[in-house]
Prior knowledge:
Layout: H1 2-26, E1 28-32, E2 47-51, H2 54-58, E3 65-70, E4 73-81, E5 87-90, E6 93-96, E7 99-101, E8 113-114, E9 123-127, H3 137-140, E10 143-144, E11 148-157, E12 163-164
Antiparallel strand pairs: 1-2, 2-11, 3-4, 3-11, 4-9, 5-6, 5-8, 6-7, 9-10, 11-12
Amino acid sequence: MKKKNIKKEILDYIIIIIIVILIRTFIFTPIKVEQNSMNPTLENKDIMILNKLGYRINGLKRFDIVVIRHDNDYLIKRVIGLPNETLEYKDNTLYIDGKQVLETFNKKETQDFKLEDKIPNDNYFLMGDNRENSIDSRMFGVVKRQEILGKTKFILFPIKNFGYVK
């Protein structure tokens, strides 16, 4: 009888470990902010929850915060341009398809620039909020949907920043 109980208990732990690994691999995982490109919205060393599944179901919207892998680094950026849109910044103002779009989040000054072509289907234009100190789509181009690892908007640590990103 004891051997059966031990085997059952071991099996229970193995099942729990497998479930945790599956959740971490396919649904949620922690991610650490490793740069200042999202200041003042996010601070270096913030620990956030990366939702790997939600954006695949609900899609991506303008101003969502996403994570990509670029040159062996994880970059946290904001979605600025969506597929099949034209994009321009002029006088620190965002224009999508020639119409002004209000950015309600805290960002730093954006130098004037204009995309010459529409953003291709299934691609996104990403930028950091700290525009003067951000490696983003202005340097490496648009990002394919499948290159986006997930969406994030919840800070776990430090406790003073705990909660949803405003």
